[in-house]
Structures are given as structure tokens and as C-alpha cells.
Design goal:
Length: 236
């Protein structure tokens, strides 16, 4: 019998990065919800979270009677949203080092695509929920839901598993919120801020605290070196 050849990734380091509040300065989805719905949507989210459910449940509720067109949304995104000013430099760093960088978002395609293009970063792949406009109405599609999770609109853990499948040697995760809780337990190096950092501390998950991508850029090489050294110690 022929031995199956081990499929090796051309990218040994995978960097999975949250969008809202991480690659983007602010939570763009929350900003859009505030702008077009007022603040009452937060009660819907909190009621769902209190039941132990997450975005797979509340996303369709939030966009059920969505009042804005695609064009109106793009205008508000242009006026109010921006990427972390250091994120483009981090993307360049990953490119130069040959690391696979990918956005994993439980937000919406409309602003991720628009903002990445605005900063000439449209080559960065991403997964997210989709806001589909049809016959003057909007609806949510979540093509990356996972059966094993069932809670997230886009369960980001699946992209960590995809990295493992591609034989990545190191999976780095960067995030700040609830939707980042599923993937961090399976990642090798974690950069965390906001509620994700609190979650990591509560669950004894080692994480590097950061404020913005100037911190990530400064701390990334050492974190990676330390991880690779720990691998060679285990292997010897
Ligand atoms: Mg976030
Ligand atoms: Zn999940």
C-alpha cells in the first residue's frame, strides 16, 4: 500500500484575526445597529445571551426589519468606521514573513469588504455572516455556522481546525470579544483584549494582552519564537 503523503501547508504560521474592535478600531456592527435601530437592539442581544444562546440566535432577529439600504450603510461606514491605523503594517509584516493572515468575523461582509478595500487590503481572506439584499429587503445568511457549536453565526473555531488540516505549525489568534471564545481554546498563541482577555484569565488560557496592532507588531516575534522553541523542546 502506498503511504499517504503528509500534506504540508505552504504557510506554517496561520494568523486568525477578529474584525470588530480588533482589526477595526470600533465595533462596526454595533455602530451600524446604533445608527439605524437606536439602542433597543441591545436588549434583544442581552435577552438571548441570558438564555445561554449567542449570535446564531440574535443575528436574524436584529436584521429582521432592517431599515437601511446597502448604499445608506456604506455611507455611514465611510463616515464613522476605520481600521486600527497599525493594522495595515501588521498585514504587510505577515505578507513579508510568509504568514497566512485571515479575518474571522461574526459580523457582516458588507463593512469588512468595504473597509479592507478602502485600505487596499482586499487580498486578505475573510469569513463572516452575510447581509443579503433582495427585493428591497435585507436578510442574514450564516454560511459558516457549525453544527458542533450551534451558538455562533460564524463559529471561528472552524478556521482553527482548517489551519490544523493544512498542517499549520502555529495558529495565532487575535481578538477581543464573545465570538472569539470558541477558537482560543484550540489556538497556540493568543493576543487578547477586552472581554476576551477576561475570559482567558478566568479559564486559565494563556494570552498576551494588547491595546492595538502596534503592540501586536512589537510582541509577535518573541511570542512566536517562544512557541517554536517550546515545540523543539517537546520534540527532543
Ligand atoms: Mg471583536
Ligand atoms: Zn462557536
Amino acid at each position: 500500500m502506498r503511504r499517504k503523503r503528509r500534506r504540508k501547508s505552504d504557510k506554517m504560521v496561520w494568523v486568525l484575526c477578529d474584525f470588530d474592535g480588533t482589526a477595526a478600531l470600533q465595533d462596526v456592527q454595533n455602530m451600524l445597529l446604533d445608527h439605524f435601530l437606536g439602542t433597543s437592539w441591545r436588549d434583544v442581544v442581552n435577552a438571548v445571551l441570558a438564555q445561554g444562546r449567542k449570535s446564531a440566535t440574535y443575528m436574524p432577529l436584529l436584521y429582521k426589519d432592517w431599515p437601511a439600504s446597502r448604499e445608506e450603510m456604506i455611507q455611514v461606514i465611510d463616515e464613522k468606521a476605520a481600521l486600527d491605523p497599525h493594522f495595515p503594517r501588521f498585514a504587510q509584516y505577515c505578507l513579508e514573513k510568509g504568514y497566512h493572515l485571515e479575518i474571522v468575523s461574526d459580523g457582516l461582509d458588507i463593512y469588512i469588504e468595504h473597509l479592507l478595500a478602502k485600505y487596499n487590503l482586499e487580498d486578505i481572506p475573510y469569513t463572516s455572516n452575510r447581509l443579503v439584499f433582495e427585493e428591497g429587503r435585507a436578510r442574514i445568511e450564516s454560511p459558516f455556522r457549525s453544527q458542533s457549536c450551534g451558538l455562533c453565526g460564524n463559529c471561528k473555531k472552524q478556521r482553527v481546525l482548517a489551519a490544523r488540516e493544512a498542517q499549520a505549525q502555529c495558529v495565532v489568534y487575535i481578538g477581543d470579544g464573545i465570538s472569539d471564545e470558541c477558537p482560543v481554546g484550540y489556538s497556540d498563541i493568543i493576543f487578547a483584549k477586552g472581554s476576551l482577555l477576561a475570559y482567558c484569565r478566568e479559564n486559565n488560557i494563556e494570552a498576551v494582552p494588547f491595546r492595538d496592532f502596534s503592540d501586536v507588531l512589537a510582541l509577535f516575534p518573541e511570542a512566536l519564537t517562544r512557541w517554536l522553541q517550546s515545540l523543539s523542546i517537546q520534540g527532543s
